[in-house]
Design goal:
With about 800 residues, this protein is of the alpha+beta class. It is about 35% helix and about 15% strand. It contains 29 helices and 25 strands. Strands 19-22-23-17-24-25 form a six-stranded mixed sheet, with helices on both faces. Strands 1-4-2-3 form a four-stranded antiparallel sheet, with no helix packed on it. Strands 16-15-18 form a three-stranded antiparallel sheet, with helices on one face. Strand 20 and strand 21 form a beta hairpin. Helix 6 runs antiparallel to helix 7, helix 19 runs antiparallel to helix 24 and helix 24 crosses helix 25. It is globular, with a radius of gyration of 36 Å. About 0% of the residues have low confidence.
């Protein structure tokens, strides 16, 4: 009734007596309840109400049951059983708490085990599994430099600004100047520079024109970085820029409180067969499947009865994930670390598990990121959807997927303005007998040929030693320069970790001075042989209709300068800026040069409608009256690249850039086509054309991840021609790829595996395609044998 509290408790004792209770245990002594009974007010007391006294072996079970119920009722769910002979006592509680220590737990509920709920999320990392901290090594990477010469990277070199005046005043009190190398400063002074000081600094004779001294304390560089990052965006995106700037000096560590599980400790104390939910979520799906196998036999009879239906559902979903080739993933894998293909296949597994019927499923390139070994399993999963009474439409270029379908719809005959027509439809066998471009590649009358000879390279290497990020197992690999290199392996084998998250950010930091983080590796040598890194991704070249191929490649600047040179423009005094749809003056102000207006749909995506003032032409009447060879600037933007190549044949600066866009197979797109209407493959080829148009030194490293995504067989052939042009100039092209047409034409292959997840992360084979095909351990080599024999 009372535990460790002061008071006389006269009212409590009287209340007990009225209920018919006769005695209580007060401070360890059983006493009879008498009228007017009270305790010393200012002493601490423990009071327990005595419910019953008995010799257990001599009373009926009914009496014990009634006494226990009464005790739980009076004690709010807690009772104490006292052995009067030995003096031993034992607590029992219907709550998740210890009555003697007070440690308690909330009643478990589904959200107790969710890191997206405050009830389950780790309070230290807020359910993220990692915590950020300022990395001092990135703030002061070179201690041989002084503050004046830029030794503190976030501040840069000395400028006549407030923070440098504060550092100067701090130095006067701590025995250093702005010209003292940081390595020669006392460690105490470095601590004050980084973390601030409470000592009062005096600033005087500053350029602010202060007539009196100014007294303040120094907050420290780390606080300065944090305060800068928290600046609110002013509407121009500056807040996001500040955030990206801060990221250069931040590193992420696994949360020490939850160990990366993202959950509160209370959630991790619930076990099933010795495993908590965090341990189960961190397992590969294959291992989780093994754990679930026969689990009922390892549970008690009561636990197994509760778990039967739940385990049936869990096993079903785990099986679906394995069936679409995702057995290497863990359940706690962050969504932002998944590729597009992995995300799509997870959604596919969800749909298979829903067991719906009479549903139309539409999938766009589901084979993205999928090794040929796993392709058959994906096809089997799609067939199960079909056999369940559903219809499945797949937009796909994979040969095996096309040949496994029931019905093929072939569009063409070309792309852009040359396409948009149904050229053939029917079963795969019927399609192969038609004369379409797709049929030619399916029936092998047209193929992507093997190169006449494999390049030998420059004899120089980029060498990675001890790469250990994610599932990589201390990988050592030499990347030969001056070659076309394919990095292959099953999904989850560590390809992206090795190239995109280890090699690329390391080189970007060393060569371009970027602040990107790279995953652990012992060292990377040979960087002196590279002077530029270019990542050519399938990310959009712009996120608004204002961005288009000519603005991205820079050719629009030359076109505007050409219009500036026309007689009509000179008479009217129009400069090159007049022909920009992003600048006031020449553009249509009704749509601000966008050619269309945005209608916000609140909870739905924005809708774009053609501007009623300029009818989508972007410019005002005066600007459109200026013409070059009879064409206005709007007419030029409406041309296809093929048309523009002929139109500007006499202007070398424009013709050269447009020709490179044509050479990558994009002659059908319009110059002013909004970037939002370009596919991922088209965006990637626009980026490639921009690189082809630039001058290179022959020491550039190009990195591409799955460049064949969304590309037809013929597009792949054109892409390979472009990539080989880059290599022929002495550059190095590294491609992460599953497409066998690309792999078989490479000069050198780095194959990872053997499996994905924890069973991957090792170099299985390296060498030419012919050498990898001879490797009995290489899954990629098994498929290469067939491709090389087919020629």
């Amino acid at each position: 009734m009372v535990k460790g509290r002061k008071g006389h408790y006269r009212e409590l004792f009287e209340q007990m007596r009225r209920k018919g209770f006769l005695s209580a245990r007060i401070n360890g002594e059983i006493r009879e309840l008498v009228p007017g009974m009270k305790l010393e007010r200012y002493k601490t007391h423990n009071i327990e109400l005595v419910i019953d006294k008995m010799k257990v072996g001599e009373v009926a079970g009914k009496r014990i049951g009634e006494s226990v119920i009464t005790a739980l009722d009076q004690g709010d769910g807690v009772i104490l059983v006292l052995d009067i002979d030995s003096g031993d006592s034992r607590y029992f509680s219907r709550h998740l708490m210890c009555p003697s220590t007070g440690i308690s737990y909330n009643e478990p509920a589904p959200h107790t085990f969710s890191f997206n709920s405050p009830a389950g999320a780790c309070p230290v990392c807020n359910g993220l599994g990692e915590v950020s901290k300022i990395d001092v090594g990135r703030i002061i990477p070179d201690r041989s430099l002084s503050i004046r010469r830029g030794g503190i990277v976030p501040l840069g070199r000395y400028r006549n600004v407030w923070i440098f005046w504060q550092l100067e005043a701090l130095g006067e009190k701590n025995g250093f100047t702005l010209d003292t190398p940081l390595g020669e400063m006392p460690e105490e002074a470095i601590e004050k520079i980084l973390f601030g000081s409470d000592e009062v600094l005096k600033l005087s004779n500053t350029p602010l024109g202060m007539t009196s001294n100014y007294f303040l304390t120094f907050e420290g560089i780390i606080s300065f970085i944090g305060n800068t990052e928290s600046t609110v965006s002013n509407g121009n995106g500056n807040g996001r820029d500040q955030s990206r700037w801060k990221e250069q000096y931040v590193s992420y560590d696994t949360c020490s409180d939850c160990g990366g599980s993202r959950l509160k400790k209370e959630a991790l104390w619930f076990m099933i067969d010795g495993k908590n939910i965090g341990e189960l979520a961190s397992m590969d799906i294959r291992d989780l499947s093994d754990f679930l196998h026969g689990l009922e036999e390892r549970l008690t009879e009561r636990q197994a009865k509760i778990a039967t239906e739940i385990l049936k559902e869990i096993r079903s979903r785990v099986s679906f994930l394995e069936g679409v080739g995702l057995g290497y993933l863990s359940l706690n894998r962050g969504a932002r670390t998944l590729s597009g293909g992995e995300s799509q296949r997870i959604r596919l597994a969800t749909q298979i598990g829903s067991r719906l019927v009479n549903v139309l499923y539409i999938l766009d390139e589901p084979s993205i990121g999928l090794h040929q070994r796993d392709n058959r399993r994906l096809i089997d999963s799609l067939r199960r959807l079909r056999d369940s009474g559903n219809s499945v439409i797949v937009v796909e270029h994979d040969r095996e997927m096309i040949m496994s379908s029931d019905h093929v719809i072939d569009l063409g005959p070309g792309a852009g303005r040359h396409g948009g027509r149904l050229v053939a439809q029917g079963s795969p066998e019927e399609i192969m007998k038609t004369g379409t471009l797709t049929a030619a590649y399916l029936n092998h009358s047209r193929t992507i040929p093997l190169p006449a000879a494999r390049r030998r390279g420059s004899g120089k290497f980029l060498s990675i030693r001890g790469a250990a990020g994610n599932n990589l197992k201390e990988v050592d690999v030499d990347i030969p320069l001056g070659m076309f290199i394919c990095v292959t392996g099953v999904s989850g084998s560590g390809k992206s970790t090795l190239i995109n998250h280890t090699l690329h950010p390391y080189l970007a930091a060393r060569i371009h001075g970027s602040g990107r983080n790279w995953l652990p590796c012992r060292e990377i040598t040979g960087t002196e042989h590279i002077d530029k890194i270019v990542e050519v991704s399938q990310a959009p070249i712009g996120k608004t209709p204002r961005s288009n191929p000519v603005t991205y490649t820079g050719v629009f600047t030359d076109i505007r300068k050409l219009f500036e040179q026309t007689t009509e423009a000179k008479i009217r005094g129009f400069g090159a800026g007049r022909f920009s749809f992003n600048v006031k003056g020449g553009r249509c102000e009704a749509c601000e040069g966008a050619g269309m207006k945005t209608i916000e749909m609140n909870f739905l995506p924005d809708v774009y409608v053609v501007c009623s003032e300029c009818n989508g032409r972007r410019y005002n009447r005066e600007t459109l009256e200026v013409r070059y060879k009879g064409k206005s600037i709007s007419d030029v933007l409406d041309m296809t690249v093929n048309m523009a190549v002929e139109f500007f044949a006499g202007i070398p600066s424009i013709h050269h850039k447009l020709k490179t866009i044509q050479d990558v197979g994009l002659g059908y797109i319009r110059l002013g086509q909004p970037s939002t209407t370009l596919s991922g493959g088209e965006s990637q080829r626009v980026k490639l054309s921009a690189e082809l148009a630039r001058r290179d030194t022959g020491k550039t490293l190009y990195l591409l991840d799955e460049p064949t995504t969304g590309l037809h067989f013929e597009d792949v052939r054109v892409l390979l021609e472009v990539l080989n042009k880059l290599v022929d100039r002495g550059n190095t092209v590294v491609v992460i790829e599953h497409n066998m047409d690309v792999i078989k034409t490479a000069d050198y292959i780095i194959d990872l595996g053997m499996e994905g997840g924890k069973e991957g992360g090792m170099i299985v084979a390296t060498g030419t395609p012919e050498q990898v095909a001879l490797s009995s351990e290489s899954l990629t080599g098994n498929f290469l044998v067939r491709e090389l024999s087919a020629g």
